[in-house]
Design goal:
Its main location: cytoplasm. The protein has 402 residues and is α+β, with helices and mostly antiparallel strands. The protein has eleven helices and 17 strands.
Length: 402
């Protein structure tokens, strides 16, 4: 009995590892199949499943190449499939043979499609940009230019000092008075006493010039309004750009209960290179200090430090939760992820802000787009939280992340 149990356990471990290596969903291999098959049969079954997955994308490529006028619909299907993952097969970042075949098939068509049309397939563009920069397709392959979302902190013109403004205004008024006085003196000398000059009639040309001047002022005012509106839109987009956050991998070295709040825990988190910071989290209901000690976590490190119930906190541990908030757990970086490395998001480049501005409520605008997908992978708008060792995940699927 013990030997049979050991063999079943061995086959289960083998099946899971093979599925991951061959980009096959482990759930497709049933417990019955594992228990009743010998090792050779189990191996053949998994390899065949892997080939079936690849052949599904080979068929897609054949259909795409042979279809006339249906490419847009097929691209839309591909776009939907890529909305929840970085590559076609597997849940990591390593391209498979399916990625190579499909990329080579759709590339020529994509290069002929207008930029406005391509914007309908954002996930395809992100995927193609990633594949073309990691797979060698030779010198004859034409690169696809993809406009990436780059965060640039908005620049605001320096406001004039109040003292300088008042001083300038006084000088201008003083100068105007002197000029008026000077002009008045000159006019009084030139004109005989009692003589009054009749006002000149406005000529058509003058009226026309005045009208043109008014229109110019209106145009200038309209231009400034449009420019301000454009700046506001740019500011709004930048504040919802995930790249403004500095999200890093950390290791909890020590955890203890908050001295004055039963619902809070205090963690000492190592970010590498001697960078250790203290973070307060509302995890006491879901985790014990022992559960968190020596655990790798994902945290935002550029939130503004502040006190939570009189204890300083300088970070935010990101957790996944169910809709009813009955289950909460910190996100899990993949094994092999380096302490301190920054989490990246395909298609989003840019440097994080030094410190987030609480008044702008930037986190409130970003966190609604943070979720785990059906595989438990943490995502921003469907794009995985990615480290050098793969994506971050949680056992809570289709959950909120904050």
């Amino acid at each position: 009995m013990a030997a049979a149990a050991d063999l079943t356990g061995t086959k289960r471990v083998m099946a899971y590892a093979l599925c991951k290596h061959l980009n096959v969903d482990p759930s497709t291999v049933s417990n019955t199949n594992i228990e009743e098959s010998d090792i050779a049969s189990l191996f053949s079954h998994i390899v065949k499943s892997s080939q079936d997955e690849v052949m599904k994308w080979v068929k897609f490529s054949s259909d795409f190449a042979g279809s006339n006028g249906k490419q847009h619909a097929l691209l839309d299907n591909l776009n939907q499939d890529l909305s929840q993952k970085s590559v076609l097969l597997g849940d990591g970042l390593k391209p498979s043979v399916a990625d190579i075949v499909v990329f080579a098939t759709v590339q020529a068509f994509v290069t002929r499609v207008s930029d406005s049309e391509l914007q309908k397939f954002p996930h395809v563009l992100r995927w193609m940009d990633y594949i073309q920069n990691i797979v060698d397709f030779g010198t004859t392959s034409q690169k696809i230019n993809v406009a990436k979302s780059v965060f640039a902190p908005p620049s605001h013109p320096k406001k004039a000092d109040k003292g300088d403004t008042e001083s300038s205004s006084k000088k201008a008024v003083s100068g105007q008075k002197i000029a008026d006085k000077s002009n008045g003196s000159a006019d009084s000398k030139k004109k005989p006493a009692g003589e009054t000059k009749a006002p000149e009639k406005e000529t058509p040309t003058t009226a026309s010039d005045n009208k043109t001047s008014g229109e110019k002022k209106k145009d200038k005012s309209a231009g400034k309004t449009a420019e301000k509106a454009s700046e506001k839109t740019a500011d709004k987009d930048s504040e919802c750009n995930i790249s403004i956050l500095n999200i890093q991998v950390g290791l909890i070295r020590k955890a203890w209960k908050h001295p004055s709040a039963d619902s809070l825990l205090v963690e000492e988190i190592d970010l590498g290179d001697g960078n250790v910071r203290q973070v307060v989290s509302g995890l006491a209901k879901y985790c014990s200090p022992d559960d968190l000690t020596n655990r790798h976590v994902v945290l935002i490190t550029n939130v503004k430090p502040g006190k939570l119930r009189d204890v300083m906190s300088a970070g935010l541990v990101l957790c996944a939760s169910t809709e009813d908030h009955t289950a909460v757990e910190p996100l899990i970086p993949p094994e092999g992820a380096k302490i301190g490395e920054r989490i990246s998001f395909a298609g989003f480049d840019g440097k994080p802000e030094d410190v987030l501005n609480p008044k702008k409520k930037q986190l409130d605008k970003i966190t609604p787009h943070l979720r785990t997908n059906e595989n438990g992978i943490a995502t921003f708008k469907g794009i995985p939280f990615t480290t050098s060792a793969g994506p971050c995940r949680s056992s809570i699927r289709n959950g909120n992340v904050k």
